[in-house]
Amino acid sequence: MDASTALDRGRTAFSEHRWADAVAGLDAADRATAATAPDLEQLATAAVLVGRFDESVAWRTRAHEAFLAGGDLDGAIRSASWLGMEFVYVGDLAQAGGWFARAQRLLHERPDAPADRGFLLIPEGLAALDDGDGERAAAAFARATELARAARDADLIALGELGRGQADIMLGRPADGLARLDEVMVAVTAGEVSPVPSGIVYCEVLQCCRQAFDVRRAHEWTRALDRWCAERPDMVAFSGQCHAHRSELFLLHGAWADALAAAQEASERAATGDPNGVFAAWYQIGEVHRLRGEVDAAASSFEEAGRTGFEPQPGLALLLSSQGDHARARAMILAAAERADPAEHRWLLPAMVEILLAAGDVVAARGVADELRELGRASPMPMLAAFIEQADGAVLIAEGDARAALAASRHAWARWRDLDVPYEAARCRVIAARACRKLGDEASASMELDAARVVFEELGARPALSAMEVGWSSAGTPSNPDGLTGREVEVLRLVAAGRTNRRIAEELYLSEKTVERHLSNIFGKLDLPSRSAATAYAFRHGLAD
Q1: C-beta separation of 45 from 26 below 8 A
Q2: C-alpha to C-alpha distance for 58 and 64, rounded to whole angstroms
Q3: Entry pTM
Q4: Could you report the per-residue pLDDT of 274-318, keeping only the tens digit for each?
């Protein structure tokens, strides 16, 4: 292939988002000394997208030098700024600072370059976000956006507006922030923004949806990110983060096997060139193992996540709490909440309530639940409302107000049901059962527990199942013969009365499958071979009507 053909093929492949082919063609042209400075820029961009970060840096550095040699200060400033952004992306802040400083120096030779000067405000805004200073971040990003609009720089407009949306959410203005992010996403999905800033926007917007408890937007933009990645099958950058976001949604909606598979795919993708996906991948793997009760695997996964420099919270503290290490879990989550920026701090609040209650610190749990409720005044998100009412119900039980706890937990259950979040909905039914028990309504308590038990068993949520059984027996459940639960006694009484499984299900408002499970438990606990034997047992022990 001659140099001209290689160059044409590389440029065409780049325009068609075939990044590996773009690298092959443009690299061949470069070796034949046919690539221009803009070609080297495209080569560097394609390389970073297929996970070849070091080569991308080398090619963009050469593009920068070629722009300088040709007297193109705008091109040199742009390439230096992007080198700074790429080093920020992989967490190498020293190198990033060096390239931003070089771009700043070149600006003194070209002070009338508003777009590029705006680009250098992005790291200032990012540093302010990292410090938790939303006001300073908002000001830096607003100025960057203003300069970008004057220069009609779509990439910089997108990054500036992304930062402004993040700052709004940090400052407790989620509605404003999310509306701004929606506008950015429209530009990205319309193809107005180039690949690297598009990937940054997709992933950061999804993180903002999580921080703002906005499940609807998370679904919508995760689907968009899926499509964007699918249209670029050889793209490695951002793909790990894409699969991690998918894992988070699978986990939320009870598809735990799918969540684990997506998280493992995220880990594999991240290892081949998406460094920002490493933490999320391992954290999600840890969450699936934690919820299943696979303690060693969860601890190992959280440890891997922690090696990235980010704290694997609240998952690690919840894992410790489930193991009975309440003091360490309490200290860990409180320290993490204190260090977190305001947006991430808010996301930790529901777990803080759970951990503090498990540690017996009801007063502190009430304070956090009230903080969560105050947060809800500024945000009408259904997921946040569900967390607020669930936390309130759990604290009210601990405070002794069973009637109010029952109302709160049932409201929370309805919200989780509407959001299709089975695990949290089942946890609300356990709170409701405890409230019914305290109010003397054993039948309703048993019904709530049975409903929760079915969900936990279907999900494989062994810790939740064990905690429910232990907590219920320790709460003073009336003793039944041979360890039968209250619901099992009711089923046994109806068997003795000659009811079929279908009739039992109708009378107790259960599914036939659940009735079959109760019968299996009864036969196992009592070592009985048949319904007739169970009927005889019921009469002998005074359980038959």
Answers
A1: no
A2: 10
A3: 0.79
A4: 888 999 999 999 999 999 999 999 999 999 999 999 999 999 999
What is the spatial distance between Cα 500 and Cα 497, in angstroms, rounded to a whole number?
9
Tell me the C-alpha distance between 446 and 211, whole Å. 36
Judge contact between 168 and 174, C-beta under 8 A.
Answer: yes
Q: Give the whole-angstrom CA distance, residue 252 versus residue 382.
A: 14
Distance, first Cα to last Cα, the chain: 91
Q: How far is CA 173 from CA 203, 299, 387, 429, in A?
A: 20, 35, 19, 32
Residue burial 169-186, b: 16+ Cβ < 10 Å; e: rest: bbbbbbeebbebbeebbe
Cis peptide before 382 (omega within 30 of 0): no
> pLDDT grade, residue 105 (50/70/90)?
confident
Distance of alpha carbon 27 from alpha carbon 30, whole angstroms = 5
CA distance 74 to 239: 31
Residues 6+ away with beta carbon under 8 Å from 7 = 25, 26, 29, 34, 35, 39
Q: Strand, helix or coil at 494? A: helix
| 436 contacts: CB under 8 Å, gap ≥ 6 | 402, 406, 442, 444, 445, 448
In one-letter notation, the amino acid at residue 148 is A
Complete domains list, the chain, with CATH? 485-545 (1.10.10.10)
Half-sphere exposure at residue 152, Cβ-oriented, CA atoms within 13 angstroms: 0
Q: How far apart are CA 171 and CA 193, in angstroms?
A: 27
Torsion of CA 284, 287, 293, 298, to 10 degrees: 70
Contact 544, 496 (CB under 8 A): yes
Give the span between the Cα atoms of 24 and 269, in whole angstroms: 21
Q: Which of 222, 212, 247, 244 is nearest to 347 (CA)?
A: 212
Residue 499: φ, ψ to 5°: -75, 145
Q: Using alpha carbons, select from 122, 114, 116, 115 the residue that is nearest to residue 139.
A: 122
Q: 231 — phi, psi (to 5°)?
A: -75, -10
Q: Which tokens go with 360?
A: 């017996």
**Region of poorest pLDDT, from 78-82, 303-307, 376-380, 541-545:** 541-545
Place of tokens 């410090």: 131
Sign, Cα dihedral of 212, 370, 334, 354: negative
Task: Name the residue type at position 74.
Answer: D
Kindly provide the b/e burial profile for residues 212-233, where b requires at least 16 CB atoms within 10 angstroms of the residue's own CB.
bbbbebbeebbebbeebbeebe
Instruction: At 397, list the tokens.
Output: 């039980």
Calpha distance 215→351 (Å, rounded): 18
Burial class (CB in 10 A: 0-12, 13-18, 19+), 134: buried
DSSP code of 171?
T
